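Exercise 7. Predict the joint structure of the components listed below.
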Amino acid sequence: MANDPNSMRTTVRQVRYLGSAKSGTHEAWHMRLTSLALVPLTIAFVWIVLSLVGKDYNTVVKALGSPAIAILMLLFLLTSVYHMMLGMRTIIEDYIHGKHAKTWALVANTFFSICVGLACVYAVLRLSFT
Amino acid sequence: MAEAKTRTVSPEARRPLSPHLQIYRPMLTMMMSIVHRVTGIALYVGTLLLAWWLIAAATDARAFDTANSVLTSILGRLVLLGFTWSLFHHLLGGIRHFIWDTGRGMDHPQREYLAQATLIGGLVLTAVVWVVAYMVR
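Solution:
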């Protein structure tokens, strides 16, 4: 039955109920977790940027390096980078169907998110400790 | 019939497809779903600007002034305006999804009200932030 070439069953259907993968929902859950955290963190980020509009270099550097603002910025940056990586992963899985294109797009997404995240975090830490 | 039996196409390829976007008449809730993804992608790319600004601030005054002059140019301001709107629209869209996660607001006309509130709220918050930005500048 399962090996019948005219079977309308998908390969997933053929293995379903044969055992549990014990994973699969953590991305959806992490999307909710990061979304929840980003509600106050985005407001904090907008507030910080607004307070720095039109300020000179020394004021901006001093403000971004102060503990409270740096911690809020780090929380915002790390949470949003993880959130956007999961979001883009969903978009790629939804719209890119070619096996190789999909794999490379997922790889590029992960690399891009980690690079941008690390660069931002490094900059904030450098502003804090110099 | 005999011909059909010898075909060995994968089961997935022979399964019927559900109708996709081009089949449906455009509706507000559907457009909002698309815009939620589009603003997400815009914010994804926009992190490059934030990274550039932070790195410039961490480098020296000259790098910071360069970044600032590009970001405060007419084109830079338009991009930042779009970034601000994307941020608020996506934020409110996320809150809309939280309301749906509780099982509420999916019926007609509640879902239409939620879509309208997200659309208007995003525009209003963007306007408020930019008015404040010009006032404190």
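Discussion. The mean pLDDT of chain B is 91.
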